[in-house]
């Protein structure tokens, strides 16, 4: 099935990267000696706004493709178990930050930029997670014995069930995030990132 998932993932990855950069650019100068130029921050705001618009456009185009291919595919997104969460993530993670960044009075406030960046990151994460979970609603194979089938009614050849990450998996994920934060902290402290004044 040909869809627009590849452009959607690309735009979402770019938007989440810019949102994270903007978040760091706003927070970092408050706790370190590093100074971020105002025009750099404004450029990040514009880039994030453009990418959020593209994200919404690609989502709408994907819905149009699904509507063209058949009502079943469209109903999975609109009326399925994750429909409300999907559209809520689009509204909170793309449209609301876009509105916050659209007005000059609000996009110059650091608190607004932090909130818009966080909402963008959370919204993109939720939409990616929902797209992953929706793919597991309907298995592509004919129910082998012991298969976890999610929303499909139970048969003699399949079992119902769910997956919960173990504490080891959660600890490894937290450790990877902590290692990244530690490396970033070392980079800020060790690397010569201060802007030199030119006489």
Written description of the protein model:
- This protein is an all-alpha fold and 199 residues long.
- It is built from 7 helices and 2 strands; from the N terminus they run H-H-H-H-H-H-E-E-H.
- Strands 1-2 form a two-stranded parallel ribbon.
What order do the helices and strands come in, and which of them pair?
Elements: H1 5-31, H2 38-69, H3 71-79, H4 83-102, H5 104-107, H6 110-134, E1 147-148, E2 158-159, H7 167-190
Parallel strand pairs: 1-2
Number of strands: 2
* Apparent shape: globular
Q: What is the typical, i.e. mean, pLDDT?
A: 78
Residue stretches low in confidence (pLDDT < 50, at least 5 long) are: 154-159
What's the multimeric state? single chain
Secondary-structure element order, N to C: HHHHHHEEH
Helix content: over 70%
What fraction of the residues are assigned to beta strands by DSSP? under 5%
Number of alpha- plus pi-helical segments: 7
Major beta sheet summary: 2 strands, parallel
Strand order of the largest sheet: 1-2
Distance between the termini: 61 Å
For the CA atoms, what is the radius of gyration? 21 Å
Class of secondary structure makeup: mainly alpha
């Amino acid at each position: 099935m040909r869809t627009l998932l590849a452009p959607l993932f690309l735009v979402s990855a770019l938007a989440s990267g810019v949102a994270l950069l903007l978040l760091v650019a706003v927070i970092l100068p408050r706790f370190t000696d590093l100074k971020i130029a105002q025009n750099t921050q404004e450029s990040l705001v514009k880039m994030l706004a453009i990418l959020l618009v593209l994200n919404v456009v690609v989502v709408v185009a994907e819905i149009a493709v699904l509507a063209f291919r058949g009502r079943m595919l469209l109903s999975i997104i609109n009326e399925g178990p994750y429909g409300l969460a999907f559209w809520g993530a689009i509204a909170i993670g793309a449209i609301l930050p876009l509105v916050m960044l659209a007005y000059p009075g609000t996009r110059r406030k650091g608190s607004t930029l932090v909130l818009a960046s966080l909402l963008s990151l959370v919204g993109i994460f939720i939409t990616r997670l929902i797209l992953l979970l929706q793919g597991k609603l309907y298995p592509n194979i004919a129910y082998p014995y012991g298969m976890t089938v999610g929303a499909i009614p139970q048969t003699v050849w399949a079992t119902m069930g769910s997956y919960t990450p173990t504490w080891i998996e959660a600890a490894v994920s937290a450790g990877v995030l902590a290692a990244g934060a530690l490396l970033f902290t070392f980079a800020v402290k060790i690397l010569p990132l201060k802007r030199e004044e030119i006489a």
